[in-house]
Amino acid sequence: MSERHTALHEAHEELGARFTDFGGWSMPVRYASDTAEHHAVRRGAGIFDLSHMGEVEVTGPQTGEFLDHALVGVLSGIGTGRAKYSLIVDEQGRILDDLITYRLGEERYLVVPNAGNQETVVRALQERAEGFDVVVTDRGPGTSLIAVQGPRALEVLEATELTPAQDVAGLKYYACVPAECAGVPALAARTGYTGEDGFELYCDNEHAPQLWSALLATAERLGTEDAPIGPAGLAARDSLRLEAGMPLYGHELSTEISPVEAGLGKLVEVALRKKGEAGTVTVGGDALTAMLGTTPQRTLIGLQGLGRKPVRAGYTVVVGERTVGEVTSGLPSPTLGRPVAMALVATDALEEIAAGTVGVVDVRGRAVDVEQTPLPFYKRG
Protein backbone atom coordinates (compact mmCIF):
# COMPACT_ATOMS: atom_id res chain seq x y z
CA MET A 1 0.00 0.00 0.00
CA SER A 2 1.37 3.41 -0.99
CA GLU A 3 1.90 6.01 1.71
CA ARG A 4 -0.78 8.63 2.18
CA HIS A 5 0.08 12.32 2.41
CA THR A 6 -1.53 14.91 4.67
CA ALA A 7 -2.69 18.27 3.32
CA LEU A 8 0.53 19.74 4.77
CA HIS A 9 3.00 17.41 3.05
CA GLU A 10 4.36 20.07 0.68
CA ALA A 11 4.78 22.49 3.59
CA HIS A 12 6.86 19.89 5.43
CA GLU A 13 9.01 19.32 2.34
CA GLU A 14 9.67 23.06 2.10
CA LEU A 15 10.86 22.99 5.73
CA GLY A 16 13.31 20.21 4.92
CA ALA A 17 11.54 17.57 7.00
CA ARG A 18 12.69 13.96 7.11
CA PHE A 19 9.76 11.59 6.65
CA THR A 20 8.78 8.18 8.01
CA ASP A 21 5.93 5.78 7.39
CA PHE A 22 3.46 5.82 10.28
CA GLY A 23 0.22 3.90 10.00
CA GLY A 24 0.43 4.07 6.21
CA TRP A 25 1.06 7.84 6.19
CA SER A 26 4.20 9.72 5.16
CA MET A 27 4.77 11.86 8.25
CA PRO A 28 7.54 14.29 9.28
CA VAL A 29 9.73 12.50 11.80
CA ARG A 30 11.98 15.54 12.33
CA TYR A 31 12.80 18.89 10.78
CA ALA A 32 16.28 19.51 12.14
CA SER A 33 16.90 17.88 15.54
CA ASP A 34 14.82 15.44 17.57
CA THR A 35 16.31 16.78 20.78
CA ALA A 36 15.82 20.45 19.93
CA GLU A 37 12.19 19.84 18.97
CA HIS A 38 11.64 17.90 22.21
CA HIS A 39 13.10 20.73 24.31
CA ALA A 40 11.02 23.29 22.43
CA VAL A 41 7.85 21.55 23.61
CA ARG A 42 9.07 21.36 27.20
CA ARG A 43 10.28 25.01 27.29
CA GLY A 44 8.23 26.86 24.67
CA ALA A 45 5.91 25.21 22.17
CA GLY A 46 5.97 22.68 19.37
CA ILE A 47 3.61 22.68 16.38
CA PHE A 48 2.68 19.20 15.13
CA ASP A 49 0.88 17.92 12.04
CA LEU A 50 -1.26 15.07 13.35
CA SER A 51 -3.55 14.80 10.34
CA HIS A 52 -2.87 11.07 10.12
CA MET A 53 -5.16 10.59 13.12
CA GLY A 54 -8.71 9.45 12.36
CA GLU A 55 -11.98 11.27 12.93
CA VAL A 56 -15.30 9.44 13.10
CA GLU A 57 -18.53 11.39 13.54
CA VAL A 58 -21.45 9.64 15.24
CA THR A 59 -24.86 11.31 15.15
CA GLY A 60 -28.44 10.43 15.95
CA PRO A 61 -30.98 10.15 18.79
CA GLN A 62 -29.29 7.07 20.33
CA THR A 63 -25.67 8.17 19.95
CA GLY A 64 -24.83 8.18 23.68
CA GLU A 65 -26.51 4.82 24.22
CA PHE A 66 -24.73 3.38 21.18
CA LEU A 67 -21.26 4.54 22.24
CA ASP A 68 -21.83 3.14 25.75
CA HIS A 69 -22.42 -0.20 24.03
CA ALA A 70 -19.63 0.04 21.48
CA LEU A 71 -16.79 1.43 23.64
CA VAL A 72 -15.33 0.80 27.09
CA GLY A 73 -16.47 3.95 28.83
CA VAL A 74 -19.67 5.79 29.72
CA LEU A 75 -19.80 8.31 26.90
CA SER A 76 -23.46 9.24 27.42
CA GLY A 77 -22.50 10.79 30.75
CA ILE A 78 -20.07 13.42 29.45
CA GLY A 79 -21.38 16.93 28.87
CA THR A 80 -21.40 18.80 25.60
CA GLY A 81 -17.97 20.27 25.01
CA ARG A 82 -16.18 17.64 27.07
CA ALA A 83 -14.07 14.63 26.08
CA LYS A 84 -13.24 11.19 27.45
CA TYR A 85 -10.42 8.69 26.99
CA SER A 86 -11.62 5.13 26.40
CA LEU A 87 -10.93 1.87 24.62
CA ILE A 88 -12.61 -0.14 21.91
CA VAL A 89 -12.24 -3.92 22.36
CA ASP A 90 -13.49 -7.03 20.62
CA GLU A 91 -15.73 -9.72 22.13
CA GLN A 92 -12.67 -11.32 23.79
CA GLY A 93 -11.73 -8.03 25.46
CA ARG A 94 -8.70 -7.52 23.21
CA ILE A 95 -7.77 -3.88 22.59
CA LEU A 96 -8.51 -2.72 19.05
CA ASP A 97 -7.53 0.88 19.85
CA ASP A 98 -7.48 3.59 22.48
CA LEU A 99 -9.58 6.64 21.66
CA ILE A 100 -10.54 10.15 22.63
CA THR A 101 -14.24 10.91 22.16
CA TYR A 102 -15.61 14.46 22.12
CA ARG A 103 -19.26 15.32 22.69
CA LEU A 104 -20.03 18.10 20.23
CA GLY A 105 -23.78 18.27 20.83
CA GLU A 106 -26.74 16.46 22.34
CA GLU A 107 -26.76 13.93 19.49
CA ARG A 108 -23.30 14.44 17.97
CA TYR A 109 -19.94 12.96 18.99
CA LEU A 110 -16.47 12.85 17.42
CA VAL A 111 -14.41 9.68 17.98
CA VAL A 112 -10.66 10.01 17.32
CA PRO A 113 -8.78 6.73 16.66
CA ASN A 114 -5.08 6.26 15.97
CA ALA A 115 -3.85 6.43 12.38
CA GLY A 116 -3.16 2.75 11.83
CA ASN A 117 -6.48 1.71 13.39
CA GLN A 118 -8.77 4.14 11.57
CA GLU A 119 -10.31 1.55 9.23
CA THR A 120 -10.63 -1.03 12.01
CA VAL A 121 -12.47 1.41 14.28
CA VAL A 122 -14.77 2.70 11.53
CA ARG A 123 -15.68 -0.83 10.52
CA ALA A 124 -16.29 -1.92 14.13
CA LEU A 125 -18.48 1.10 14.89
CA GLN A 126 -20.51 0.65 11.72
CA GLU A 127 -21.08 -3.02 12.50
CA ARG A 128 -22.03 -2.29 16.11
CA ALA A 129 -24.44 0.46 15.03
CA GLU A 130 -26.94 -2.12 13.79
CA GLY A 131 -30.14 -1.76 15.81
CA PHE A 132 -29.31 1.77 17.00
CA ASP A 133 -30.74 4.98 15.56
CA VAL A 134 -27.34 6.46 14.70
CA VAL A 135 -25.21 7.33 11.69
CA VAL A 136 -21.45 6.58 11.70
CA THR A 137 -19.49 8.76 9.25
CA ASP A 138 -15.75 8.59 8.52
CA ARG A 139 -14.59 12.22 8.53
CA GLY A 140 -10.88 11.38 8.50
CA PRO A 141 -10.21 11.81 4.75
CA GLY A 142 -11.38 15.43 4.80
CA THR A 143 -10.02 16.52 8.17
CA SER A 144 -6.64 17.90 9.24
CA LEU A 145 -5.35 18.11 12.80
CA ILE A 146 -2.69 20.53 13.99
CA ALA A 147 -1.53 20.46 17.61
CA VAL A 148 0.29 23.18 19.54
CA GLN A 149 1.91 21.74 22.67
CA GLY A 150 4.00 23.32 25.42
CA PRO A 151 3.90 25.99 28.14
CA ARG A 152 3.59 28.75 25.49
CA ALA A 153 0.86 26.96 23.47
CA LEU A 154 -1.96 29.31 24.49
CA GLU A 155 0.25 32.33 23.83
CA VAL A 156 0.89 31.06 20.31
CA LEU A 157 -2.80 30.61 19.57
CA GLU A 158 -3.78 33.96 21.04
CA ALA A 159 -1.18 35.66 18.85
CA THR A 160 -2.58 33.95 15.74
CA GLU A 161 -5.94 35.73 15.51
CA LEU A 162 -7.72 33.36 17.88
CA THR A 163 -11.45 33.87 18.46
CA PRO A 164 -13.18 33.52 20.85
CA ALA A 165 -9.86 33.66 22.70
CA GLN A 166 -11.49 33.76 26.12
CA ASP A 167 -13.41 30.52 25.49
CA VAL A 168 -10.31 28.67 24.28
CA ALA A 169 -8.19 29.98 27.16
CA GLY A 170 -10.88 28.87 29.61
CA LEU A 171 -11.05 25.30 28.33
CA LYS A 172 -10.61 22.64 30.98
CA TYR A 173 -8.46 19.60 30.34
CA TYR A 174 -10.31 17.18 28.03
CA ALA A 175 -12.70 19.80 26.67
CA CYS A 176 -13.38 21.43 23.30
CA VAL A 177 -15.04 24.49 21.75
CA PRO A 178 -15.67 25.80 18.22
CA ALA A 179 -13.18 28.55 17.36
CA GLU A 180 -11.34 30.38 14.60
CA CYS A 181 -7.58 30.70 14.33
CA ALA A 182 -5.99 32.77 11.56
CA GLY A 183 -9.46 33.02 10.04
CA VAL A 184 -9.79 29.23 9.84
CA PRO A 185 -12.89 27.62 11.43
CA ALA A 186 -11.73 24.85 13.74
CA LEU A 187 -12.65 22.69 16.68
CA ALA A 188 -10.22 23.64 19.45
CA ALA A 189 -9.55 20.91 22.03
CA ARG A 190 -7.33 20.77 25.10
CA THR A 191 -6.06 17.21 25.51
CA GLY A 192 -2.51 16.46 24.40
CA TYR A 193 -0.02 13.60 24.29
CA THR A 194 3.21 15.21 25.43
CA GLY A 195 2.85 15.78 29.18
CA GLU A 196 2.50 19.52 28.57
CA ASP A 197 -0.43 21.88 28.27
CA GLY A 198 -1.58 22.21 24.70
CA PHE A 199 -4.32 22.39 22.13
CA GLU A 200 -5.52 20.52 19.07
CA LEU A 201 -7.12 22.28 16.10
CA TYR A 202 -9.36 20.18 13.82
CA CYS A 203 -10.12 21.84 10.49
CA ASP A 204 -10.99 21.02 6.88
CA ASN A 205 -8.07 19.94 4.71
CA GLU A 206 -8.46 22.91 2.42
CA HIS A 207 -7.78 25.34 5.28
CA ALA A 208 -4.89 23.44 6.90
CA PRO A 209 -2.03 25.12 4.94
CA GLN A 210 -3.34 28.59 5.86
CA LEU A 211 -3.53 27.66 9.54
CA TRP A 212 -0.11 25.96 9.54
CA SER A 213 1.58 28.93 7.87
CA ALA A 214 0.01 31.38 10.30
CA LEU A 215 1.13 29.36 13.31
CA LEU A 216 4.70 29.11 11.99
CA ALA A 217 4.75 32.86 11.39
CA THR A 218 3.74 33.38 15.01
CA ALA A 219 6.42 30.93 16.11
CA GLU A 220 9.10 32.84 14.21
CA ARG A 221 7.91 36.11 15.73
CA LEU A 222 7.60 34.95 19.35
CA GLY A 223 10.24 32.24 19.72
CA THR A 224 13.27 32.89 21.90
CA GLU A 225 16.44 30.97 22.68
CA ASP A 226 15.22 30.06 26.16
CA ALA A 227 11.62 29.29 25.10
CA PRO A 228 11.74 28.26 21.42
CA ILE A 229 8.66 27.71 19.28
CA GLY A 230 8.60 25.78 16.02
CA PRO A 231 7.50 22.70 14.09
CA ALA A 232 8.07 19.33 15.72
CA GLY A 233 8.07 15.84 14.25
CA LEU A 234 6.96 12.42 15.40
CA ALA A 235 10.35 11.54 16.91
CA ALA A 236 9.97 14.34 19.46
CA ARG A 237 6.35 13.35 20.02
CA ASP A 238 7.47 9.81 20.85
CA SER A 239 10.11 10.86 23.39
CA LEU A 240 7.68 13.37 24.94
CA ARG A 241 4.87 10.84 25.39
CA LEU A 242 7.31 8.25 26.76
CA GLU A 243 8.59 10.66 29.41
CA ALA A 244 4.95 11.34 30.32
CA GLY A 245 4.28 7.58 30.65
CA MET A 246 1.62 7.59 27.93
CA PRO A 247 0.97 4.36 26.01
CA LEU A 248 1.35 3.97 22.26
CA TYR A 249 -0.76 1.49 20.33
CA GLY A 250 1.42 -1.28 18.97
CA HIS A 251 3.78 -0.93 21.93
CA GLU A 252 1.97 -0.72 25.30
CA LEU A 253 -1.45 -1.47 23.79
CA SER A 254 -2.42 -4.18 21.31
CA THR A 255 -4.68 -7.18 20.83
CA GLU A 256 -1.95 -9.23 22.56
CA ILE A 257 -1.87 -7.03 25.69
CA SER A 258 -4.93 -7.00 27.95
CA PRO A 259 -6.28 -3.72 29.33
CA VAL A 260 -5.40 -4.89 32.84
CA GLU A 261 -1.82 -5.73 31.85
CA ALA A 262 -1.54 -2.28 30.27
CA GLY A 263 -2.47 -0.61 33.57
CA LEU A 264 -5.99 0.33 32.47
CA GLY A 265 -7.81 -1.97 34.85
CA LYS A 266 -9.25 0.91 36.88
CA LEU A 267 -10.66 2.56 33.75
CA VAL A 268 -12.33 -0.74 32.79
CA GLU A 269 -13.60 -1.42 36.31
CA VAL A 270 -15.26 1.98 36.69
CA ALA A 271 -16.83 1.81 33.23
CA LEU A 272 -18.26 -1.67 33.73
CA ARG A 273 -19.60 -0.81 37.18
CA LYS A 274 -21.44 2.24 35.87
CA LYS A 275 -22.76 0.31 32.88
CA GLY A 276 -23.90 -2.49 35.14
CA GLU A 277 -25.84 -0.02 37.26
CA ALA A 278 -27.48 1.34 34.11
CA GLY A 279 -28.17 -2.09 32.63
CA THR A 280 -25.97 -1.41 29.59
CA VAL A 281 -24.51 -4.35 27.68
CA THR A 282 -21.10 -3.48 26.23
CA VAL A 283 -19.11 -5.33 23.58
CA GLY A 284 -16.51 -7.49 25.30
CA GLY A 285 -18.00 -6.81 28.73
CA ASP A 286 -18.06 -10.44 29.89
CA ALA A 287 -14.42 -10.99 28.88
CA LEU A 288 -13.34 -7.77 30.60
CA THR A 289 -15.18 -8.75 33.78
CA ALA A 290 -13.34 -12.08 33.79
CA MET A 291 -10.01 -10.27 33.37
CA LEU A 292 -10.72 -8.05 36.35
CA GLY A 293 -11.33 -11.13 38.48
CA THR A 294 -7.89 -12.63 37.94
CA THR A 295 -4.32 -11.51 38.53
CA PRO A 296 -2.74 -10.49 35.21
CA GLN A 297 0.21 -12.57 34.07
CA ARG A 298 2.10 -9.40 33.08
CA THR A 299 2.37 -5.87 34.44
CA LEU A 300 3.52 -2.67 32.75
CA ILE A 301 6.33 -0.93 34.65
CA GLY A 302 8.80 1.91 34.21
CA LEU A 303 12.56 1.41 33.99
CA GLN A 304 15.45 3.87 33.97
CA GLY A 305 19.01 3.22 32.91
CA LEU A 306 21.78 3.47 35.48
CA GLY A 307 24.26 4.55 32.81
CA ARG A 308 24.20 6.14 29.38
CA LYS A 309 23.53 3.00 27.35
CA PRO A 310 20.14 3.32 25.63
CA VAL A 311 17.25 0.96 26.30
CA ARG A 312 15.15 0.16 23.24
CA ALA A 313 11.85 -1.53 22.45
CA GLY A 314 12.30 -5.27 22.06
CA TYR A 315 15.10 -5.61 24.63
CA THR A 316 14.69 -8.53 27.00
CA VAL A 317 14.09 -7.92 30.71
CA VAL A 318 15.91 -10.34 33.01
CA VAL A 319 16.09 -11.09 36.70
CA GLY A 320 19.22 -13.13 37.38
CA GLU A 321 19.20 -15.83 34.72
CA ARG A 322 15.43 -15.65 34.21
CA THR A 323 13.78 -13.82 31.31
CA VAL A 324 10.77 -12.02 32.78
CA GLY A 325 9.57 -9.66 30.06
CA GLU A 326 10.24 -7.28 27.21
CA VAL A 327 10.74 -3.55 26.79
CA THR A 328 7.74 -2.05 24.94
CA SER A 329 9.17 1.49 24.50
CA GLY A 330 12.59 2.88 25.30
CA LEU A 331 14.60 6.00 24.46
CA PRO A 332 17.17 8.35 25.95
CA SER A 333 15.20 11.03 27.80
CA PRO A 334 16.23 14.53 26.64
CA THR A 335 14.59 16.10 29.68
CA LEU A 336 16.01 13.77 32.32
CA GLY A 337 19.36 13.02 30.69
CA ARG A 338 19.14 9.26 31.09
CA PRO A 339 17.53 6.30 29.30
CA VAL A 340 13.90 5.52 30.21
CA ALA A 341 11.65 2.68 29.16
CA MET A 342 8.35 0.94 29.72
CA ALA A 343 8.27 -2.83 29.88
CA LEU A 344 5.78 -5.66 30.25
CA VAL A 345 7.10 -8.07 32.87
CA ALA A 346 5.88 -11.18 34.64
CA THR A 347 3.74 -10.17 37.60
CA ASP A 348 5.33 -12.84 39.79
CA ALA A 349 8.73 -11.16 39.27
CA LEU A 350 7.67 -7.74 40.55
CA GLU A 351 9.10 -8.19 44.05
CA GLU A 352 12.52 -9.16 42.69
CA ILE A 353 12.45 -6.29 40.22
CA ALA A 354 11.56 -3.81 42.96
CA ALA A 355 14.50 -5.12 44.98
CA GLY A 356 16.83 -3.84 42.27
CA THR A 357 17.87 -7.13 40.65
CA VAL A 358 16.59 -6.28 37.17
CA GLY A 359 18.50 -5.79 33.93
CA VAL A 360 17.84 -5.70 30.22
CA VAL A 361 19.66 -7.41 27.37
CA ASP A 362 19.89 -5.90 23.89
CA VAL A 363 19.45 -7.77 20.63
CA ARG A 364 23.17 -8.69 20.58
CA GLY A 365 23.09 -10.14 24.07
CA ARG A 366 24.76 -7.19 25.78
CA ALA A 367 23.52 -6.28 29.27
CA VAL A 368 22.27 -2.82 30.26
CA ASP A 369 21.86 -1.98 33.94
CA VAL A 370 18.44 -0.57 34.84
CA GLU A 371 16.19 -0.14 37.85
CA GLN A 372 12.44 0.14 38.27
CA THR A 373 11.05 3.65 38.61
CA PRO A 374 7.48 4.94 38.98
CA LEU A 375 5.50 6.13 35.99
CA PRO A 376 5.35 8.76 34.64
CA PHE A 377 9.01 9.70 34.35
CA TYR A 378 8.14 13.37 33.93
CA LYS A 379 5.39 15.65 35.30
CA ARG A 380 5.12 19.28 34.28
CA GLY A 381 5.13 21.99 36.89
From TrEMBL:
**Catalysed reaction, written as an equation:** N(6)-[(R)-S(8)-aminomethyldihydrolipoyl]-L-lysyl-[protein] + (6S)-5,6,7,8-tetrahydrofolate = N(6)-[(R)-dihydrolipoyl]-L-lysyl-[protein] + (6R)-5,10-methylene-5,6,7,8-tetrahydrofolate + NH4(+)
One term under GO cellular component: glycine cleavage complex
UniProt-listed Enzyme Commission number(s):
2.1.2.10
Residues at which substrate binds: 200
Tell me, which GO biological process terms does this entry list? glycine catabolic process; methylation
Q: Which GO terms describe its molecular function?
A: aminomethyltransferase activity; methyltransferase activity; transaminase activity
For this UniProt record, the keywords arranged alphabetically read as follows: Aminotransferase, Methyltransferase, Transferase
Domain GCVT N-terminal residues, every copy: 8-270
What sequence ranges are listed for the domain Aminomethyltransferase C-terminal?
298-379
Q: Which domain of life is it from?
A: Bacteria
Q: Which SUPFAM superfamilies match?
A: Aminomethyltransferase beta-barrel domain (SSF101790), Folate-binding domain (SSF103025)
Bilayer-crossing residues are none
Using the UniProt record, name the top-level EC class of this enzyme in a single word: transferase
Q: Which family does it belong to?
A: Belongs to the GcvT family.
Q: What is this protein called?
A: aminomethyltransferase
Organismal lineage:
Bacteria, Bacillati, Actinomycetota, Actinomycetes, Micrococcales
- What gene does the UniProt entry assign to this protein? gcvT
